[in-house]
Amino acid sequence: MTNQKTAILIFANSAQQERIVKPFRKSADLFGTLNKQTLTKVKKTGLPYFHFSEKEQVGNTFGERYVHAIQSVYNKGFDTIITLGNDTPHLQSRHILETARKLQNNPVVLGPSKDGGYYMMGLRKSHFDASLFLKLPWQTSNLNRRISLLFRSKNIQIEWLEILTDIDSISDVKVLLNSFRKLSCRLKKILCSLLISEKILFELAPIHFQKTLQKTPFNKGSPSIASYQNI
pTM for this one? Predict the structure, then answer.
């Protein structure tokens, strides 16, 4: 039985906001579908949850908004929280419940993503330090390593989940479509359409722009922070 003092934090913008900040076509359809599917999976766990879209987020940077959301959920009386976004299609209810179970015996649970970040984090309130979290390199490929070093420096052991793929770039879309893991028919259709539209754009673009298009990641909502203080 999972601890009912555990809450889920969905930290994800609305589809309308994603349409503005994501520099690729069909972003509203894609993230509208992902938001609905994420909410469905969260509800299946039976755990209390809170969704912080751009309307509820407070702060100038991603890190500030994320840390504020985490603290807000703790302030509601929960001992542990499980944070997740909307850009990991293969995330399932079982991953969330597994995290909740692991939190009963472990202070930190992380689900690493292939881009160097994480798609889900389970964390006890007693191990959350807002000032240190604000210094982490959010939205960079160095996040997973830095957060691991942070907890290791405090002799806190991390319990790891399996690695999953976030949607950050066109290459991630290809990985998801080529994966043997199941995707809903609607999501697969949107991803295929996105891949086709980006391929057409690539073929029509001047040759000196094509390499840039191949490497351009999808923005996760706020500008990446250029520099950070060492932890």
Answer: 0.81
